[in-house]
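Re: beginner question about structure tokens

> Can someone show what the tokenized structure looks like for a real chain? I only ever see the sequence side.

Sure, here's an example I had lying around. Input first:
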Amino acid sequence: MDQDLLPQLARIGISLPSKLLAQLDAMVSRRGLPSRSQMIAELIRHELADTEDGLADGVMAGTITLIYRAESGRVRHALARVQSEYLPEVISSQHVFLEEDRSLEVLLVQGSAERLQQLCDRLRRVRAVQQLKLVTTRSLLPPLHAHGSSEPEAPLRRRAGAR
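And the corresponding structure tokens:
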């Protein structure tokens, strides 16, 4: 592989409690990763994406995972109503019933960090929502379709000014 295509790496040293290091090594082994470095880099990327600093201006893609009590159709109706207010951001959703009258729903989303955070905040306000997790990436979905044009749509990142 061309050396110019390899990412620049920097070496750091960290100290961890022995129990935490054992848990990290077990996770690396379970996931079949070749090194601790890959696991630590993945954890850092996830944390950066989840922080306000990671949610900088620009368009992002990701998922919102919800777990909620589905005691009546009222809850699903309330969630659908919120999602309908964010139609440009909600690409699709998948719902499954869990045990004990609980449901799991995963939304595929894309939009500005601000709009995605607003959507999460609105979904959290639905009384039966027990857990909600937003996972984002700066990589975007390819354009799903072009509106009113026979030409392929320009990638969203160029139109939105994202990196």
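Each token stands for a local structural state, so reading them left to right follows the chain. The radius of gyration is 20 Å.
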